[in-house]
Amino acid sequence: MSTAAPTFISAPDMLAHWQGHRRLTRRVIELFPDDKLFTFSLGGMRTFGELANELLFMAAPMAHGLATLDWKGYEPKGGKSKSEVLALWDQSTKDVDKYWAPIPAGRFQETITSFGQYTGPGHLQVLSVVDNEVHHRGQGYVYLRALGIAPPAFWER
Amino acid sequence: MSTAAPTFISAPDMLAHWQGHRRLTRRVIELFPDDKLFTFSLGGMRTFGELANELLFMAAPMAHGLATLDWKGYEPKGGKSKSEVLALWDQSTKDVDKYWAPIPAGRFQETITSFGQYTGPGHLQVLSVVDNEVHHRGQGYVYLRALGIAPPAFWER
Q1: A107: Cβ contacts below 8 Å, ≥ 6 apart
Q2: Do residue B135 and residue A134 have CB atoms under 8 angstroms apart?
Q3: Is A152 a domain residue?
Q4: B94: closest CA of chain A, how far (Å)
Q5: Domain for residue B44, yes or no?
Q6: What's the Rg (C-alpha) of chain A?
Q7: Is A112 contained in some domain?
């Protein structure tokens, strides 16, 4: 972008928006019955527990990588039960905040390669993580509906 | 936000990102068999044709509203068949570009009320439209999988 281009959203506002999405995703995880989170799926797709673990593998590692350019230094864990996933989610929430704070101001416009394989500007690196969360959470809504459980309103954050 | 806060993403880069999402959603609409777009669903949810019409009702009207603050001046149409929806989608793509261009530079940080009911900063108004598209498209992926059709890769734009 040109440095003269108007700002769409600032870095602190984007963090707040992302954490709002993460609160909603946490509520979706909570709504799954314990015995369905890692067993139920549709269309041969992954369970919502597996999808939630994928989100854990991306969120805090992305914030850590943008802050440090060290893409191996944060080792995320995945859970095997709802209580484990929720505990890891809460830790991840704190870590996203912790590593977002020291990200250099220009990093979001720099072209970088994350995790040794994805090359693009910092803002697209973050958006790919957030969009992937929204995408998979939408799938979780279908799973919940198919289980007869009403998902939270999309705009509740 | 403080005016000193670093930019996460500029307005032109956000438009490019949104239009990338819209190209992917178009491919998802195209992948539905003609006779399934408005008939197939899971969990008692809306069909993907109905969801695509909802996206049409939000995208260009949002860009038009942010440019003009006239929330009734753009009357979007919905389609009743795949060919109608795709034609409306292509018109909507042009209209999003057309109305995005004259949006005033500060509009994305202003607090505004869209469509007479949603109050928040301009950037959240746009993000709510984009996020809603990603959310519902994720649901479309489940429908396609359940129909035995492989959806496009999420990162293809």
Answers
A1: A66, A122
A2: yes
A3: no
A4: 20
A5: yes
A6: 16
A7: yes
Domain count, chain A: 1
Optimal mutation site among A1, A9, A154, interface B, most CBs of chain B within 10 A: A9
- CB B42 within 8 Å of CB A142: yes
Task: For residue A21, give the chain B residue with the closest CA.
Answer: B131
Beta carbons of A36 and B139 less than 8 angstroms apart: no
Cα separation, B120 vs A81, whole angstroms: 37
The pTM is what? 0.96
Domain that holds residue B39: 14-146
ipTM given for this complex: 0.96
pLDDT in tens, A79-100: 999 999 999 999 999 999 999 9
CB proximity A32 to B under 8 Å: no
Q: Classify residue B59: in a domain, yes or no.
A: yes
Residue A7 parent element (H or E): strand A7-10
In CATH, what number is assigned to the domain containing residue B35? 1.20.120.450
